[in-house]
Amino acid sequence: MSFLNKIKSFASKNPDKVQVAVDKAGDLFDQKTGGKHAKHTDTVQEKAGEFLTGRASDTPPTAGGQPPA
User: What is the value of pTM for the model shown?
Assistant: First the structure.
């Protein structure tokens, strides 16, 4: 199994842990750049969350946590 496949597998099994890591990395980046790119960093964090959960951030979650078909 390639390294990239291992990362994908981990992310699909642990989306909450990956989201926490993405948020921490984004916050650290904002801190190091003085918030100069905060808007872009927030967008990346949101898109990563959407990818991990399989739904858009403006779409309300459905019963059972599954995205609408």
Answer: 0.67
